[in-house]
Design brief:
Strand order of the largest sheet: 2-1-3-4-9-5-6-7-8
Oligomer: single chain
Structural class: alpha+beta
Distance between the termini: 26 Å
Radius of gyration: 19 Å
CATH architecture: Ribbon
Order of helices and strands: HHHHHHHEEEEEEEEE
Helix content: 25-40%
Number of helices: 7
CATH superfamily: Umud Fragment, subunit A
Low-confidence stretches: 1-23, 101-109, 124-132
Strand content: 25-35%
Amino acid sequence: MSNCQINFDILEKLDYTMAYLMQKGFKMNSFLDIVEEIKSIISDEIAPKKVFDKDVAASLGISQMNFATMKKRNKIPFNELLDFCAKRSISINWLLYGQSPESLVEATNKFYMVKYFSDINASAGGGSDIECEEIEELEIPEQFVFMLGGERELQNIEAINVSGDSMEPTFSYNDIVFINRSKTDINRGGIFTIRTEAGLFIKRVQKRIDGKLDVISDNSIYNTQTLDENQVEVIGRVVSRFGDVD
C-alpha cells in the first residue's frame, strides 16, 4: 500500500480502511470503553472518592455538556486523549485499541511520527503560514499508517486541526486531519487544504469545464464559492483524520 494512489473520496477510503483493520484484528474501542479505562486510570488520583463521568470530563478538559454529547454520539475527542496520554506517559494504542501492556512491549519498538501543527486551524476560519509555525511531533499507531497511504508517504504527511462547522458532517470542530502535501492535483476533485486571500481552509474542490474551481463546503448552509485557479493555493489532499464520520 505504500505506493497506492489515494484518488477516491475520503469517506469511501475510511470505510475501506476500517474493513481492512477489522480483517487484521484491529478494532477501535468505543468512547464508552475509553471512558471506563480513564476512570480506572484516574481513580488513584481522586481516591477515595468514586469516579464519575464529570471527573473524566474534567481530566480531559471537556465541559460536562460536551462530554455527554460525545458519549451519546460515540464521538472520540482525539486531541484531548492525546494530551491526557502524554501527561501520564500512556500509549494511545492502549486506549484506542485495548492492547494489553504486555502486547505493547513489542509494539512500542515500532511507532511512527508525523509533523503536527497544533496551532494551525483550518476550515471555516482563517489560518497561518504553515512554514512559520512551531512544529510538534504526533505519534501514530502502526496500524494507522495504512490510512495515510503507507510508510513511504509519511514524509509528505502533516497534521492540523479542524476549526468551525463548514465541513460538517464530514469533519467536526477539533478533529485532527492529515494532509499529504505531495498530492496537489485537483483535476479529479476531492477534499483539500487550500489557502486563499481569506485564509486557510479545508474544502471539497472541483475543477469546472471552464477551468475555474468550485470550492464547496459539505455543510449545506454555506454557499459554494467559484474562484479562478490562480486564486487558490493547494496545500495538499486530506487523506485521513482522527475523528468519527457522522
